[in-house]
Amino acid sequence: MIRVNDRFDVAWREGMTVEELLKALGFTYPLVVVFVNGRLVPRQAYATFPVADGAEVRVLHMVAGGQ
Predict the structure, then answer these.
(1) Domain limits for position 17
(2) Residue 66 lies in a domain
(3) β-pairing, 56-61 with 2-4?
(4) 36 Cβ partners below 8 Å, 6+ apart?
(5) Which pLDDT score is estimated for 30?
(6) Is residue 24 in a domain?
(7) Where are the beta strands (DSSP E) in 1-67?
(8) In terms of pTM, does the model score above 0.85?
(9) In a domain, 67, yes or no
(10) Helix, strand, or coil here: 49?
(11) Is residue 51 a part of any domain in this protein?
(12) Rounded CA gap, 27 and 25, in Å?
């Protein structure tokens, strides 16, 4: 089981990557930052970065604002 943002539990499967996890959760926002067990995952590595069973994942949406 993978815990995401302290809210979602996702069933782990062999070979799961960050990209597959984001798709499984329906995260489609193009600007997100992902941490796996506290480690920042570079965006270019989402398709290949493995997510282990029991991982704690944090997905943050990047939002700009101002006046």
Answers:
(1) 2-61
(2) no
(3) parallel
(4) 18, 49, 51, 55, 56, 57
(5) 80
(6) yes
(7) 2-4, 8-10, 32-36, 39-41, 56-61
(8) yes
(9) no
(10) coil
(11) yes
(12) 6
pLDDT of the residue at 16 = 97
User: In 3D, which of 46, 47, 55 has the Cα closest to residue 9?
Assistant: 55
Residue 65 pLDDT greater than 70, yes or no: no
Amino acid identity at 65: G
The model's pLDDT over 6-63, given as tens digits with 9 standing for 90+, comes to 999 999 999 999 999 999 999 888 889 999 999 999 999 999 999 999 999 999 988 7
Report which of 2, 1, 11 is spatially closest to residue 34, judged by C-alpha positions.
2
The total domain count for the chain is: 1
Which residues are bridge partners to 56 per DSSP? 3
CATH classification of the domain holding 15: 3.10.20.30
The residue behind tokens 């590595």 is 45
pLDDT value at residue 62: 83
